[in-house]
Amino acid sequence: MYRLIQIALLSLAFASAPVLATDALEAQVQEIERLAVTAHWRESNAKIEDLSSRLDALTPEQRHRVAFVRLRNLGLAGDERAALKGLADLLQQDMPTALRIRVYVTAISIAANVEDWPLAFTWLGEGLSYLPEAPAESAKLLGVASYLHTLVGETGKARELALRALDLVESGNDPRALCLALGDVALAEDHARNFREAEAWRHRQIDACTRAGDLVFVANGKYGVGKMAASQRRHAEALEWARQALAEFEAAGFAAGAWSARLVVAESLIESNRGLDEAHALLTDTLQYYRAQESDLAVAETERLLARLAERRGDLAAALAHFKEAMSASEAGGRVAHERRLAYLQVEFDTRLKEQQIALLEAENELAALQATATQRRQLLLGVGMLGLLVTALLLSGLLRHSFRERRRYRWQSEHDSLTRLYNYQQVRKLGEAAFARARDTGPFTAIVADIDLFKQVNDRHGHAAGDEALRSLGTWISEAVDGRGIAGRSGGDEFTMLLETDAAEAEALLQRLRGRIEPITVFGRTFSFNISSGVCQADGHTATLEQLIHEADQALYRAKHEGRDRVVCANDHAAVAPEPAAGLVVVGSGIEFGRHVSERALSEIREAQVVFCLADPFALAMISSFRPDAVNLGVHYAVGKDRRQTYREIDAAIMAEVRAGKRVCAVFYGHPGVFADVPHRVVRKAREEGIQARMEPGISAEACLYADLGIDPGQHGVQSMETTHFLVHDRRPDTAGLVLLWQVALAGDLSCTRFHAEHEGLQALVDKLLRWYPPEHEVILYEAARLPIETPRAERLPLRDLPTAHYEEYTTLVIPPLDSPTEERLGGKMSGST
């Protein structure tokens, strides 16, 4: 956690001064420094208090050293603002360069801890300028420089600085300096998400810090090992390391480290599904502490773990509440990170500006010297200087103009669709909200939703280039028809939205002009035509929101499609005599991440259905229930030890009962409803056999997410995709020259259809069969798609022989790359011949 790292850095800044004990007072000063170095800062404060009556007897350097230790201890005790003010005053004093650099290191760390980023980066720039004068202190300042670059996202620079510091201390014989430098490298690798490398550095840190006798950084190293083990899903091992770190932090009186270690303990307990009460108690106390500290990122992490704990306990409402709190804290933390980044860039800019100013001053000094020795060249040199200033001004002016143009270009791209050059979905909604609110007082307001009839056939018959040209041309014709009298944008795919401050009659007239403007298109020598269907809705006294107005227009478009396409349907004409929705069934997919993957059409079907059934993950179910409280959870039909085939028949019967009762039914299934799914296909087939309208809307499947997350192009080598037990039981041979996907690998060999967990015997049987075609060391991947925006997908690489001992969820997928291609080419490298 950031909080632990920031406070722990206070210990990095200090090393005892290289002064021999020549008298009793010097011996006392060195003892104060020694206690501070070994994390006995309370004893160090007591010694300072004993020495306070004899401060006048100390030399100026000794007084500065004692003052430095006192201020450092003040920061460790939590009074960081007072410590910061004292260190700023101390830096104004005249002192040896080596001591000054140590003061800079501690001052920078505390400034970062209280999030005064401009001050931290300013002091860093000042401190780096002293490095040539005190090379022995370089490692300490390079370490804190690495830390600050980590915080602003410059992980590559942070790693480079940390390794430079490590090279310096390895050439010496200072075990404590080696301890601290190893911690810097581990921290940089951690933030670069190189978890295995970070764990190896943490083990080296523990060994070095143990030899150096630094109790805080021994505990910090163990905390780091636990955190890296948890990041790699080795939760039992993580729990053991985190408990050790917690005990040692508490023994050293290092509260911030103890709170961070509690988070790793709680996470390991939750993921191991044991000690959930203990995890809840730890997280409750930790959340209270971090809220008091106003540490948004730590609060977000704690709330995320509480959501995971609530999900484990089956409390979906609490899980959703904690998830929302985590999202809110993450947003606040993001704002802090943004401010930190701006401060870094501002200091960088100021530094470069100062360098330019120094360069100009040096040029002026040189000019003055030349004037003194050669008056006859004065005018010439003055002209050269003025020319340099003019060139610099021109360069700066050019840079500013270029920056302004780039910002304007990026803003335009963020607001417009790149293909049609109309507004994108988000900008249409943003501008539309303002126009809709304004129209409440000024006059009528109408929404149009239009799309191309049978657009898929355009792509299938004439190619995707023809489809792109159709969209591009339609966008141009829409822009010409609207002609600045409204808002027009591409909502997605082949669907367009127009918002006009006029009535429905004028909107229909505009659409007739647009339809008349559409003409045949020629692409690659082939000419084709297309038509559009449109839905129109004018706001009335019952239209409360823009979203509702667009939805009504979308429903009118839906009717235009059912009435034969190539027409305009006005929702207001149907409002008075709107028929009851016809009985029927539509099956939709929620996608893997509901909030991002679910389509507008699927949401419309869910809202408009008379009965909604849901079989989705807890978060998708909670989000659907928020606007359809009457949604029926099909997950209640599942039970431990129950045959899933019986469950499927019960779900089948529940859906068909409502369909046969003459109701309009929407069934929502996780991911893509037609992929590895029995019930959706069965109920659609049954309804059609009974003469009832039934259809399936596509969704985003885990396979689509897999290709994106792993960087795989399925067109390069081909894909063979099978359910694991089907592959294991039947005589199926894998195509080793292509990609092989085995789904639900945790349920390998489950012929009873009752298991929800992995068993070693089934996984070993799967490995034994795969060894007929693949070597035991062949690298495979265990993949799990992310279900929430704050999650990251799992892509754990391991040898084929290690599959039986790996960790599995019910939805884990086994990815087997081809045998005849290097890993880099298979997974994200250049794919010759791919499109």
TrEMBL record:
- Transmembrane region positions? 380-400
GGDEF domain residues = 443-573
**Single GO MF annotation:** diguanylate cyclase activity
Query: Lineage in the entry?
Result: Bacteria, Pseudomonadati, Pseudomonadota, Gammaproteobacteria, Lysobacterales
Signal peptide location in the record? Answer: 1-21
Name of the protein: diguanylate cyclase
Question: Where does this protein have coiled-coil stretches?
Answer: 353-380
Q: Which organism is it from?
A: Luteimonas salinilitoris
Sorted alphabetically, which NCBIfam families does this protein's record hold?
GGDEF
The protein's annotated catalytic reaction(s) are: 2 GTP = 3',3'-c-di-GMP + 2 diphosphate
Query: What EC number(s) has UniProt assigned to this enzyme?
Result: 2.7.7.65
Pfam families the record matches: GGDEF (PF00990), TP_methylase (PF00590)
Write the record's keywords in alphabetical order, separated by commas: Coiled coil, Membrane, Nucleotidyltransferase, Signal, Transferase, Transmembrane, Transmembrane helix
